[in-house]
């Protein structure tokens, strides 16, 4: 029975050669087909997606890098619902997201794909007020692009306030929510503040550690849940699962923001409820802390709060160590016999394999956890320049210009050296942007001794 059916099906599917070649060209043209054609094809259904209706001119052959699902492919999804709102404020609340997303993934054959991450970052639409701010933002963005390219992560960078009343640090909520809806293929949305630098290009997010959690934050559970300190966590870098829980959480978080009339009242509530809070301003981070404490069963228990590595690290404790860290990594690679293989030149595309091998070499010699931490000499995964305000130019007066401006340049060069290595270059130093070509067997050859 099965054989007969498949034979029959095989016969049925054997299209005349002429038709199939037309189909190929028609498919290419379809990508750019006008709405009328799309509508007609949609009615024809998935059984005959390549039949070109009368009156439609085939403008092929068109160069398309990969087959793109045409407008007629696939069943209706949540995107076809005119009530779907990308707005974090004032739009219709989105419900049943987990089922909608699962259905979308199933219909696109992506149900069992590995977990994907979309990084979201952004900055203000206007030019920076601070001197050199735009150039710094460009370099911060380039750093994120580099990391994402090496790790197969897509980057969404916003230069628009999707909800104008959600100003400053509140702006991330509408942008993260919109990215979640626009990227149902992503299991995680990774918000990274514009002023955070990825300083370990060899480190990958340890996603398996986050099974059972929906939100990942850098912080100290004791500070948050026992001391109720709003400085017990950092809201500038977080990983949030693409699920209904997260949409509900973002809704509730947004409700404490400046788009809502209760915002001013929240400022007073937060000041009273949290420690180390000395003003009446409701900021995103104090609001987040409050939510976790207030409803720990619903929110807190799904939050991975830890300092196991520098998921985001405070820059002032890091920038002074970067030269020492670079020197230790270089020495480890130079000395380890096993490093000969990992020193081999390779395509950027192979980065992750070499990164894993390099980490294994370094792990044996350089103290500290993968991804860096407050002790040890491992590379910090993320160095966050909280309070340096590179775009606005008004840094927190507790910081010197050397630690902020000098620190940012050093951290960017430190990261860039890891990227440039695949191109055969490095900076003369973390303070000198001149590029030097690398000897073939760097760093063994760089040591100037023969082995
Ligand atoms: C930067 O490095 C280059 C190459 O080593 C050197 O010639 C140049 O003098 C350095 N610049 C500064 C300002 O130190």
Which terms would index this structure?
single chain; 38% helix; transmembrane; 11 strands; Spore Coat Polysaccharide Biosynthesis Protein SpsA, Chain A; 14 helices; 3 domains; glycoprotein; six-stranded mixed sheet; 451 residues; binds 2-acetamido-2-deoxy-beta-D-glucopyranose; disordered C terminus; transmembrane helix; three-stranded mixed sheet; alpha/beta
Description:
The chain is globular. The relative contact order is 0.10. The chain has a six-stranded mixed sheet, sandwiched between helices. By secondary structure, the protein is an alpha/beta fold. The protein has three domains: 22-67, no CATH class; 116-194 and 207-306, Spore Coat Polysaccharide Biosynthesis Protein SpsA, Chain A (Alpha-Beta Complex); 313-447, no CATH class. It contains 14 helices and eleven strands. 38% of the residues lie in helices and 12% in strands. The chain has helices spanning 2-13, 17-31, 35-44, 97-107, 133-151, 172-182, 221-226, 244-254, 263-273, 284-294, 322-335, 339-342, 351-365, 401-420; strands at residues 117-122, 154-158, 188-192, 196-198, 215-219, 233-241, 303-306, 313-314, 382-384, 425-429, 432-437. The termini are far apart. Mean pLDDT is 85; it is low at 1-60 and 447-451. 2-acetamido-2-deoxy-beta-D-glucopyranose binds next to strand 11. The site of 2-acetamido-2-deoxy-beta-D-glucopyranose has 3 residues, from strand 11. One of its GO terms (cellular component) is trans-Golgi network. It is found in: Golgi apparatus membrane. Probable glycosyltransferase that may be involved in the biosynthesis of xyloglucan. InterPro entries: Glyco_trans_34, Nucleotide-diphossugar_trans.
